[in-house]
Amino acid sequence: MIKVLIVDDHEMVRLGIASYLGIQDDIEVIGEAENGLDGRDQALAKRPDVILMDLKMPKMDGVTATKEILAAWPQAHVIILTSFIDDELVYPAMAAGAASYILKTSTAAEIADAIRKTMRGQSTIAPEVNDKLQHKDEAMADMALYDDLTNREREVLDLIAQGKSNQEIADELFITLKTVKTHVSNILAKLEVDDRTKAALYAVRHGKVSAPNNDVGE
């Protein structure tokens, strides 16, 4: 039997899930908690196989409860069961060690399936949440390309995004035209783009463009 603890501050949610899980041949609900603090205490005392954990609860939120449970008992399997897909909740929950992240819009059968998969070492992530995680990973990987640029290359990229020609960049930075061309070539390679326009779009998209210098008479 897979022993399950349900931690949620809404009684009807707990009752609904417990009612369905209670008729499963391989799942047993061994406890319910209405706040994160009680959930943490029950998890450490009863040692369930799986903990269904809400996020926003009184006394202790789900992320903190998950961290404290896993710190004391790393073998626990925590499944986040929530209505929220906000970045500020998703990433801390996954970073805290949650094995799966599903939404309360899931059917009871889907929740039971997630419990079984989690026990087999398979992570279940709600599609909406998975999309957010994927986009975040892509954005972080994209930003990592910028991090590879040298300070001088970032200056050149900034000026490219401002619409400056190679000669104008050379004049503004007091470097040779040949040096500018070398920097541009390196920038295109590091950002994995094939022309100046795409490099400029990258800079604009990531907010890496400063206000152009329109001073005259210098």
From TrEMBL:
InterPro entries, per the entry: CheY-like_superfamily (IPR011006), NreC/VraR/RcsB-like_REC (IPR058245), Sig_transdc_resp-reg_C-effctor (IPR016032), Sig_transdc_resp-reg_receiver (IPR001789), Tscrpt_reg_LuxR_C (IPR000792), WalR-like (IPR039420)
The UniProt record lists the keyword NADP: no
Keywords noted in UniProt: DNA-binding, Phosphoprotein, Transcription, Transcription regulation
GO molecular function list: DNA binding
Modified residues (4-aspartylphosphate): D54
The UniProt record lists the keyword RNA-binding: no
Residue ranges of every copy of the Response regulatory domain listed in the record: 3-119
Domain HTH luxR-type per the UniProt entry, residue ranges: 142-207
Signal peptide location: none
Biological process (GO), any one: phosphorelay signal transduction system
Entries under Gene3D superfamilies matching the protein: 3.40.50.2300
SMART domains tied to this protein: HTH_LUXR (SM00421), REC (SM00448)
Name recorded for this polypeptide: LuxR family DNA-binding response regulator
